[in-house]
């Protein structure tokens, strides 16, 4: 068996909440921008004794000789990673999933040698190409062409090796028209396209991708996923952090779930990993109501969401555990400040492992059935066919698109979401089976009739 491409043993990373100074890792940019202040503090003459603060007498507003500067309260420690251990074999495509704040980006920064762990150790065999955020590794003042060569040299490639791949990189990125423009003038999507093209096409043994592909459009995401499959089939190792669960299922050979800084390796059991992430263990918990703070991020003139709920048939809030025979509604309340007939509101429902069951929007109806919008607060309701759904945990994500067809709430990226568990059904009512596989488990009527007569006639 070949040696692992990546070995991680008891890796931990601690941060001090509420502090920015102190010992630890500092970026070069921070050190350079701090040099003038440091030089000034070192070179300025000492203050005369008469100008120094004097003591505060009791009951006085003036300083006293024995007064000490107040000490800042001790900030608590936060462990972004705690005793994480796993191995990655050469050629594996590892999907790393977990909710926000689980430690995914911290792990990738350590493996990319951007930051140092607090404790533990790791080993990486081969050159690493990383794309951790928009513009990673690019100098904003250099052109796209120059940044391609700088990135390649940073990876240890020769100029001739970079030149050999240059045309492929430019063609894949689609930024040929702006190749000699400084990267600081690129949009975030253009930077991601070029960054991924460089990372995927240069000859690194390990490719590390954080959740940046969501910045690109759907066509580019599809190309990236296809390219990562080609990279893996060529024997290179890929670590892929994403919330695009369907991409994990289609592309990854192994899965690792991070939950509050701890790692849960699922190996090749991708569906089990997605089920864990999509269930109570991976979401913020079951909820039939989205808080106002989450909705306030999606203000727009056409339909600003004010509430997003799962209720019973009377509009009454319900617990997050719902029975199959319970009539349920999705209720969206929103404010219209600018009248338009060309926007849509709806929801998308997916299973616990990230597979989409269906979408529903009010624009699915005939246009003459659409609401006659005017400014004010509106309530939209739609029934949920719980009687067709199987038992399990489901996510319901809000969908809002603007008149320009731009996303305001996009499922899988920035959409507020509900999470409910549906219980009851065949596992309780049928002695022939427990919970069935699949998304749907409807109880349908059957009829039986006794055939009589020589020819089977009734």
Descriptive notes:
The protein has 458 residues and is of the alpha/beta class. The chain has 2 domains: 201 residues, 3-Layer(aba) Sandwich (Rossmann fold), CATH 3.40.50.300; 132 residues, Coagulation Factor XIII, Chain A, domain 1, CATH 2.70.50. The chain is 23% helix and 27% strand. The protein contains 10 helices and 18 strands. Strand 6, helix 6 and strand 7 form a beta-alpha-beta unit. The longest helix has 16 residues. The termini are far apart. Keywords: ATP-binding, Nucleotide-binding, Transport. GO terms for molecular function: ABC-type transporter activity; ATP binding; ATP hydrolysis activity.
Strand percentage, roughly?
25-35%
CATH topology of the largest domain: Rossmann fold
H/E element sequence: EHEEHEEHHHEHEHEEHHEEEEEEEEEH
Nearest-integer average pLDDT: 79
Q: What is the CATH-assigned architecture of the largest domain?
A: 3-Layer(aba) Sandwich
Low-pLDDT sequence parts? 20-25, 47-72, 280-284
Q: Radius of gyration, Cα only, in angstroms?
A: 28 Å
Strand ordering within the main sheet: 5-6-7-3-8-9
Q: Just give the CATH class of the largest domain.
A: Alpha Beta
Helix and strand composition category: alpha/beta
The backbone outline, from C-alpha atoms, is globular
